[in-house]
Fold this sequence. Notes:
The complex is a heterotrimer.
Chain A: E1 6-14, E2 23-32, H1 38-51, E3 74-75, E4 78-79, E5 101-105, E6 114-116, E7 119-120, H2 123-132, H3 152-162, H4 169-173, H5 180-192, H6 200-213, H7 224-228, H8 236-251
Parallel strand pairs in A: 1-5
Antiparallel strand pairs in A: 1-2, 3-4, 3-5, 6-7
Helix pairs in contact in A: 2-6, 3-5, 5-6, 5-8, 6-8
Chain B: H1 16-26, H2 32-35, E1 39-43, H3 47-59, E2 62-66, E3 84-85, H4 97-107, H5 114-134, E4 159-160, H6 166-184, E5 187-190, E6 193-201, E7 204-212, E8 218-222, E9 225-228, H7 249-256, E10 261-262, E11 267-273, E12 296-300, E13 317-318, H8 320-324, H9 334-349, E14 358-361, H10 363-376, H11 384-410, E15 419-428, E16 431-432, E17 445-447, H12 465-485, H13 499-518, H14 524-539, H15 545-565, H16 577-601, H17 625-628, E18 630-638, E19 641-648
Parallel strand pairs in B: 1-2, 1-9, 2-5, 9-17
Antiparallel strand pairs in B: 3-4, 6-7, 7-8, 10-16, 10-18, 11-15, 12-13, 12-14, 14-15, 18-19
Helix pairs in contact in B: 1-5, 3-6, 3-12, 4-5, 5-12, 10-11, 14-15, 14-16, 15-16
Chain C: H1 2-12, H2 14-39, H3 49-60, H4 62-91, H5 113-130, H6 132-142, H7 148-155, H8 159-186, H9 192-222
Helix pairs in contact in C: 1-2, 2-4, 2-8, 2-9, 4-5, 5-8, 8-9
The structure holds flavin-adenine dinucleotide, protoporphyrin IX containing FE, iron/sulfur cluster and FE2/S2 (inorganic) cluster.
Amino acid sequence: MSEGNMRLTLKVWRQSNENTAGSFENYQLEGISPDMSFLEMFDVLNEQLVEAKQDPVAFDHDCREGICGMCSMHINGQPHGPLQGVTTCQLHMRSFKDGDTIVVEPWRAGSFPVIKDLVVDRDAFDRIISAGGFVSVNTGNAQDANNLPVPKEAADDAFAAAACIGCGACVAACKNASAMLFVSAKISQLALLPQGQVERKIRAEKMVAQMDAEGFGACSNTQACSAECPKGITFDNIARMNREYLGAKLSSTNV
Amino acid sequence: MATSPRLDAKIPEGPLETKWSKYRSSVPLVNPANKRNLEVIVVGTGLAGASAAATLAELGYKVKAFCFQDSPRRAHSIAAQGGINAAKNYQNDGDSIYRLFYDTVKGGDYRSREANVHRLAEVSGNIIDQCVAQGVPFAREYGGLLSNRSFGGVQVQRTFYAAGQTGQQLLLGAYSGLQRQVGMGTIQMYNRHEMLDIVNIDGKCRGIIARNLITGELERHAGHAVLLCTGGYGNVFYLSTNAMGSNVTAAWKAHRRGAFFGNPCFTQIHPTCIPVSGEHQSKLTLMSESLRNDGRIWVPKKKDDNRPANAIPEDERDYYLERRYPAFGNLVPRDIASRAAKERCDAGYGVGSSKLAVYLDYSAAFQRYGMGEANKNNISNPSQEDVISWGKAVVKEKYGNLFDMYKQITGEDPYEVPMRIYPAVHYTMGGLWVDYNLMTTVPGLYALGEANFSDHGANRLGASALMQGLADGYFVIPYTIGSYLSNEIRTGKISTDHPEFIKVEAESKARIEKLMNIQGTTSPEMFHRRLGKIMWDKCGMARNAEGLSQAITEIRALREEFWRDVRVMGKVNEFNPELDKANRVADFIELGELMCIDALNRNESCGGHFREEYQSEEGEALRDDEDYRYVAAWQYKGTEDWELHKEELIYDNIKIAQRSYK
Amino acid sequence: MIVMSWFTQTLTSSIGKKLIMSLTGLFLISFLVIHATINAMIFYNDGGETFSHWGHFMGTNPIVRTLEIGLVLGFLFHIYDGLMLTKNNREARPVKYASRNANANSTWYSRSMGLLGTLILIFLVVHTSHFWIPNRANQFSTGEELDLYNMMLEIFQNPWVVLLYVAGCFSLFWHLLHGFKSAFQTLGLYHIKYNGLISFVGVAFSIVVPLLFALMPIAMYMGWVH
Ligand SMILES: Cc1cc2nc3c(=O)[nH]c(=O)nc-3n(C[C@H](O)[C@H](O)[C@H](O)COP(=O)(O)OP(=O)(O)OC[C@H]3O[C@@H](n4cnc5c(N)ncnc54)[C@H](O)[C@@H]3O)c2cc1C
Ligand code: HEM
Ligand code: SF4
Ligand code: FES
C-alpha cells in the first residue's frame, strides 16, 4: 500500500543482438514503491524510456507468478536476485533499500546466447528434453490410471523433481554453466516412477549426451545451483543422475 | 428462436450417451500413407495445443507448432493450480459421467451444448489414464492410488491434482510428448513466433502468417488444416490472472477473416485473488479456490470500519456467504462468490486501504485443526496457544505454498492476520464458435482449449478447463479432424507463393509499418491500461445497458486515439516486445468493443454475465431462457459492424432450472 | 573399436570425466593415508629409525613399487583431467558476469578446485624434486636409497621451504575439504543417512592429514624433531 518513495540506480546490460557487443547503461529511477515486483520496476523504467524516445529494455517474462520459468535476470550477482526460493517476477522491491544501485545482467552461458539485452536463448533445454525427457507412450495406449499403484513417497519425490520450471537459474549460478540440476531433475522424476522404468537407461544416456553436446559445463559439486533454484530442486538429483548414467553406461546394451 | 443457417453444429444423431462413440467409429479415416502428406499447423502449445500436436504427429500427420514464448513449456496452462476433473468415481461417492455432465451444464448456467459437454465427461477418464502413463506425478494416497479433492459447485470428489501445480505437471506431460515428436522430426517447432493472420484460399483456411519474434521477419506457413489453441483473452481487462503475453490476436485475426466469435461477453471472475495494491500493478495473482475449503470469508458488519481485522470481535463480523447461501456456504460457484464480494465492497463494507477487498480468514481452521491434533494425540485440556500453533502446522502442510505466496506478494503474514482477497478476471468462456468437430465457421480452421467457446456455457466450474483443453487435444481433434482431412488427400502440397499468402503477408506488413510510423506520445501499455479500466468498470462483474453503451463509445474513441497516438519504440526487424504488445493491444481494443456489444445484447443475467437490470429481489441472477437460450455467434462485417447469429441450445436430457446454491 | 567407443564415450562425457576425477582423487586420498602415516613416524623422534625402516620397505617392496606406477598414473590422470575440466568449464561461460555474489550460494574453495589443485601441483614439483626424484634416480643409478630423514632435516632448515610446504598443506586442506565429499557425490553416493558421516570424515580427514604434513617441516625447523 505504501506510496512509491524509493530512488534507485540501475546498471543494466544492453545488447542489440547476438552478434553485437553489449555494455552497461545506467538509469536513475524515482518513486519506486516497495510493493512493486522487480519486473514492475522494470515496467516503470521502460515507460520512462519510451517517454524519452529511447529503446526500452528487453527482458523475458510471462506468467509473473513464478511458474512459467520465463523471467531470468541476474541481479546483483545472483540469478533471480538476493532472495532464495523465488523467481525474478516474485521478487519485490521491499528486498532492496532506498538509494541502492542494482546491477542487472542476462544469464551468462555459452549455451544461452543473448538475443537482446536481458533475453537469452534457452532452446538447448528443449533439445535436451527431446533427447529423452519423456515416456514413449502414444495417446490412447494407456491402461486405467489406478492399475498402476505408485508408492506415495515415490510420487512425492518425483513431483518434487518435476517442479522444475526450466528457468536456467542453475546454469546461470554455476561457475561452470552446468545444466546438471535441470537435466537431473527430469531424469530423477522419471527414474523414480514405475512409468519411467522401460526407457530408464537409454533416457539417461541420451539426455546426458545431448547436454554435453550443447556445451554446458561439468559439475564441480559446488551446489550453487540448488542454492539458487527458485523451485528448491535438491542437489541429490545430480547424484541420482550420476548413478543412473554410469549404471546405464555399464549395463545397457547400447554400444 | 431458430438457429441461424450459418451455424451448423453438426451434432451427431442418436441418444446422448452414444453420440460420441458412434460418431467416433464412423468418422472417415485417412490412411497412413496419405497422413504423411497432410500438414497440420497448430498455433499454441498449452494443454490444448501441445496435446493436439503430439497426438496428430503420433498419428502420422506432418505438424508445425507455434508459440510466442521461448519454449512450448511456458504456455499459460502452466499456471493452473487447483486440479483437473474426471468422472472416475475412484472415491466411490456417486460420481459418474452423467453427473459430471450434469454439474458442468448446471454450473454453466444452461448456456452450453449438451452433446459437447457429454463427450467431455466421457473422455475425462482417459485423460487421467494418459497423463499417468506419461509420468505426471499426481498426488497419491498411502496405498499408492490416486488422490482426489473437491472443488466449488459440486458435491463429489473428482478433482485430480499435483499439489498446487496441476497445470504445470499436466503441461509438462503434454510438452514431453510434443518434444518427443520434435526429436523424431514429425513436429517442427517454432518458438518465439507470433501468429499474425490466417490465410484463406477458396474459402478454406490454408495457412498462417507468423512473425519471427527474434528477427522480426514475417513468415508464410501452409497447412491443410490450422488449429488455433491460443488460450483465453482475459487480458482485455489489462489486470487479470493471465500471463502478460496472453492475447487474443490469433483468434481475433481468424474472426476478422470469417470465424464467428461465440459469447464474447462470458468472462469468469475468480473470487479469491490477491487485491490490487497500487497503480503500478501489472497482473493479478490467483489464490487457489481450494482455500475456500477451509477459510471463512467475511467483512465487518459496520460500514467503513477501519479497525484491524483482529480487533473486530466475532459478533461484529458478517460471514456473508454463509449467511446468504447456507447450503454451499463458502463453496458456492465462482460467479456467485465474486458477485457477493463486490456487492459488500460497493455497499461500503470493504476492507484494506483500497476498500476493495474482503477477508479470507483461517483462524477458525487453525482452531479446528488444532483441536483435531490434540484429540489425535490424546491431549486433554491443551492451552489455546498450543491448539493454534498445531492448527497452523496442519494448515501449513495443506496450503503452505499459497500462504508463502501471499506473504511474498503482500508483505503480510496470513498466519497472523486474515488474508485480503478480491475477485479478478480469470478465464473466458467465450471464444471462437466451433461445431461438434471443433471446426470454426472457416472450413479447415479449428479452435481448441480456452480459445473456443465450447463447453462451459456462461460459467466454468473449477478444474474443468484443464480437462477440456486435454480432451480437445488428446481425444477429440484426432478423430474429428479426419472428417475434413479425408477430403484433402488430393489437395497436394499447398504453395506459400499463392497470391493470397502474398496478399495477407503484405497486409500484416502494412499494419506493422503503420504501427511503427505513428510515433505518437502514448505507449501501448498505457492504452492497454485504459482499455482495461473501461472494461472492468463497465463490462466487468456487473454490467448495465447504460454503462455498456458508454463503454462502446469510449472504446471506439480509444481505438481511434490508438491509431493516431501510439508510440512504438525499437525497430521492425529485431526483437521488439513493444511492437508485439502494440499489435496485441490493437486487437484487444476491437475485441473489447464486441464484448460490450454482446453484453448489451444479452438482456438477462446468467453465469459470469450479470446485468444489473436482471436480478431477483435478493440480488440473484435472473436468466431469460425464453429469449436468450442461445449461443451468440458474431460475424465480423467491418469496423464497428457485426452481425449476430444465434445457435439455439436444446436441452433434451437435462431439465432446465433456476440455479440454486442456497 | 566398438567396445572402446561406448567406453571412451563414457569417460569423455561430462559425468565420465568427473568419474575419473573422483576415482583418482579417492585413490590419491588413500595414498595420502599411507604417506602421512609413514612420515608421521618421524614424530617418534628416534633419529629417524622407524621412519627409515618403513621408508625402506616402501621404496623397495616390489608390490609397493608396482603400485607406485599406479600412483604416478593416478596423479597424471587426475591432473590432466582436472586441468581439462577446468578449461572446458571456463569455456562454457565465454562472457563473464560483471557482478557476481557467488559467496551467497557456494564456498570459495569449492569454486577454486582448479586453482587449489594447481597450487598443489606446484608444491608437488618442488616436493618431488626434493625427495622422490633424487631418491629414485639414485636407486636407479646406484641401487642405494638416500638417507631421506637427514635430507629432510637439512632441507627444512630453510624457512622459505617450510613456508612453501605449509602453504602446500593449506592448499591440500581446502582441496580436500571440498574434494572428499565431492568425490562421493560424483559417484552418486549421496544419501541422507550417510551424508553426515561422509561430511564428518571428510572434514576430519582434511584437517588431520594436512596438519600432520605441515607439522613435519615445522617440527624439524623448530628443532622439535632431530
Ligand atoms: C492462474 C490460473 C489458474 C488456473 N487454474 C485452473 C485449474 O486449477 N483448473 C482448471 O481446470 N483450469 C484452471 N485455469 C484455466 C486453465 O489453466 C486454462 O484455461 C487452460 O490452461 C488454457 O489452455 P490452452 O491450451 O487453451 O491455452 P494456453 O495454455 O493459454 O496456451 C496458449 C498457447 O497459445 C500460444 N499463443 C497465443 N497467442 C499466440 C499467437 N498469436 N501466436 C502464436 N502462439 C500464440 C501461446 O504461446 C501458448 O502456447 C487456470 C487459469 C489461470 C490463469
Ligand atoms: C594429493 C593430491 C590430491 C588429492 C588427494 C586430490 C583429491 C581430489 C578429490 C577427492 C577431488 C574430488 C573429485 C570429485 O569432485 O569427484 C578432487 C578434485 C579436483 N582436483 Fe584434486 N587432488 C589432488 C591433487 C590435485 C592436483 C595436483 C590437481 C591439479 C590440477 C588437482 C585438480 C583437481 C581439480 C581441478 C578438481 C575438481 C574437478 C571438478 O570438480 O571440477 N588435484 N581432487
Ligand atoms: S533446476 Fe531449478 S534453477 Fe534449474 S531450471 Fe529447474 S527450476 Fe530453474
Ligand atoms: S514470469 Fe513466469 S516465472 Fe517469472
